[in-house]
Amino acid sequence: MSELILHQYAESTFSEKVRALLGYKNASYQQVETTIIMPRPHLMPLTGGYRRIPVMQIGADVYCDTAIMCRVIDDIYPENSVYPEAQRAAAEGFALWTDTFFFQVVVGVAFQPSALGTEPLFKDEEAAAAFMADRAQLAEGASQIGMPFEAAEAHFLLHLSNLDQQLAAVPFLFGDSPSIADFSTYHLVWFVSQREVLRHYFEPFENLMAWYERIRAFGHGHVQTISGEEALAIAAGEQPDEIEDAVLLGGLEVGQLVEVMPIDYGFQPVAGELLAAGIDEITIARNDDQAGRVVVHFPRMGFQVNSA
Ligand SMILES: N[C@@H](CCC(=O)N[C@@H](CS)C(=O)NCC(=O)O)C(=O)O
């Protein structure tokens, strides 16, 4: 099997979720350092327009959204699965709530005015303006990505307090070993604690901090950095995996031209030929001048499929 390639940037919180899981699995992989804002000329030929970060690539197969990336990583490294059988719905539901609702809370807290002034990016007026314009494009048409600060702070402290109480009783959120809920929670704690001026939020929560250090200690696995050009050449040189016994739900047909995009933000549709639309995954094929034939995978949860 081809090596796993993670397209990410150091400051990206959802990338940290995947990096930490790869660390827990003691995985070897390659990474491409993308830019913090668009354009991403070596990534768009792979995704066909999906612009959120991270993106995972295995040969000519491309995975959008960390929900599907984590499932694929867990399948490749099934030992110590992070999807505990007896708690699967609860752990996945917790992870989804954390990556959506609690993410909005965290954005509201992390980008509060007092923290922005201390960010190197926001000290450079031109870079700050470019960042804001880029994120406005990401948010176009979306109801909200970040919660207003006052509401966000109250929600943030409440959840930290609940987590801290729970983690007084168990080493990880769903018991003795980490589940997907831990990785979703971890990356958002990481995101806020990257900002020194915001670290005071965590001081009262010793159990939470001890848990955070347990996950941080997993590291990021064994990483080799490659360029965007190299990743593109890898896709062009390989064939995507065949899909056997395609499942199609919701009146869709194999071969139909469709557009797939998130339901929350980042409404940049990816057009392609539908290969499968099962209970937990949507898969389309695209042909690209630079990448060749690529198959793009999305999770069902959080995405919409429309006829092109
Ligand atoms: N639900 C998505 C969320 C991804 C996301 O929002 N990523 C942020 C970076 S951490 C992003 O794409 N921001 C805009 C950008 O980097 O261009 C996932 O789990 O992958």
Set down the secondary structure blueprint.
Blueprint: E1 4-8, H1 13-24, E2 28-33, H2 44-47, E3 55-58, E4 61-64, H3 66-76, H4 88-110, H5 113-116, H6 120-123, H7 125-139, H8 149-166, H9 180-193, H10 206-216, E5 222-225, H11 228-236, E6 257-262, E7 270-277, E8 281-288, E9 292-299, E10 303-307
Parallel strand pairs: 1-2, 2-5, 4-9
Antiparallel strand pairs: 1-3, 3-4, 6-7, 6-10, 7-8, 8-9
The general outline is globular
CATH-level-2 architecture of the domain at 85-216: Up-down Bundle
Detail the poorly predicted runs.
Answer: none
Averaging pLDDT over every residue, what do you get? 96
Describe the structure.
- With 308 residues, this protein is of the alpha/beta class.
- It has a domain at 85-216: Glutathione S-transferase Yfyf (Class Pi), Chain A, domain 2 (Up-down Bundle), CATH 1.20.1050.10.
- The chain contains eleven helices and ten strands.
- The chain has helices at 13-24, 44-47, 66-76, 88-110, 113-116, 120-123, 125-139, 149-166, 180-193, 206-216, 228-236; strands at 4-8, 28-33, 55-58, 61-64, 222-225, 257-262, 270-277, 281-288, 292-299, 303-307.
- The chain has a ten-stranded mixed beta sheet with strand order 5-2-1-3-4-9-8-7-6-10, with helices on both faces.
- Helix 1 packs parallel to helix 3 and helix 1 crosses helix 9 (180-193).
- The protein is globular, with a radius of gyration of 19 Å.
- The two termini are 32 Å apart.
- The mean pLDDT is 96.
- The chain binds glutathione (GSH).
- Glutathione is lined by residues 12-14, 51-53, 65-67, 99, 138.
